[in-house]
Design goal:
By secondary structure, the chain is mostly helical. It is built from 9 helices and 2 strands, in the order ααααααββααα. Keywords: Membrane, Transmembrane, Transmembrane helix.
Length: 181
C-alpha cells in the first residue's frame, strides 16, 4: 500500500470526513493558502464553490476521475458517474455547514468575507497574520496541497470561475446533471 493510501486510511479512521468541522476547516484554509487567496486583491470569488471543491481536495479517487476525463471526449464509466453524482448531491447539502464554518472563521478573524456586488456573491480570503505560521508548515497537508495544484491545473481560473462553470467542468462534462439555484 502506498504512503498516500496509508494516510487516507489513517484520516478515515481519525474522523468522519463528511461532517467533521476540523477536516472541512483545514481543507478550506489549505486550499485558499495554496491558491494564494491571502488578500482582497487575490480573493476567492464566491465561497459556495468551496462546497463542491473540498471533496476533490480530500479524495484522490474523485480527483483522478476528473483529471482522467478532463478535456476528453469520453465519459467516465457508470460507477464513476454515480460517484460524481453522489458527490455533487452531498456537496449541495453541505452548503449550510460550510457557511457556518466560514462565519466562525471570520468571527475569529482567520478569514475575511466580503460581499461582491458585481457577482452577487460573497468572496473570501485568508488573514495569514492571524493564523500561526506552523499551521501551513506541516507535512500532514502535503496531499491536499498536491490535490489543490491538480485542481488548479484542471481549472486555472478556479479562483474567479463562476459556480455554474465550475459545476459544468467538474460534474456536467462528466455525465452528471447539475443545476444551480
Amino acid at each position: 500500500m502506498s504512503n498516500k493510501q496509508n494516510l487516507d486510511v489513517k484520516k478515515r479512521i481519525m474522523f468522519s470526513k463528511e461532517d467533521d468541522y476540523y477536516f472541512i476547516t483545514y481543507n478550506i484554509l489549505v486550499f485558499l493558502d495554496t491558491l494564494g487567496c491571502i488578500s482582497e486583491n487575490r480573493r476567492f470569488v464566491d465561497y459556495t464553490k468551496l462546497t463542491y471543491i473540498i471533496p476533490f481536495i480530500s479524495n484522490h479517487l474523485l480527483l483522478d476521475i476528473v483529471v482522467r476525463f478532463n478535456n476528453s471526449n469520453h465519459l467516465p464509466n457508470s460507477e464513476e458517474i454515480e460517484l460524481l453524482r453522489e458527490t455533487y448531491y452531498s456537496s449541495r447539502l453541505k452548503l449550510k455547514l460550510v457557511t457556518s464554518i466560514l462565519f466562525a472563521l471570520e468571527h475569529n478573524e482567520y478569514i475575511e468575507l466580503q460581499k461582491n456586488e458585481t457577482r452577487h456573491s460573497i468572496d473570501i480570503w485568508i488573514r495569514k497574520d492571524k493564523i500561526p505560521e506552523s499551521f501551513f508548515d506541516t507535512s500532514l497537508y502535503k496531499i491536499e496541497i498536491e490535490h489543490t495544484q491538480k485542481v488548479r491545473e484542471i481549472s486555472p481560473r478556479i479562483r474567479t470561475l463562476t459556480v455554474s462553470k465550475l459545476l459544468e467542468q467538474f460534474f456536467g462534462n462528466k455525465g452528471v446533471t447539475v443545476w444551480q439555484v
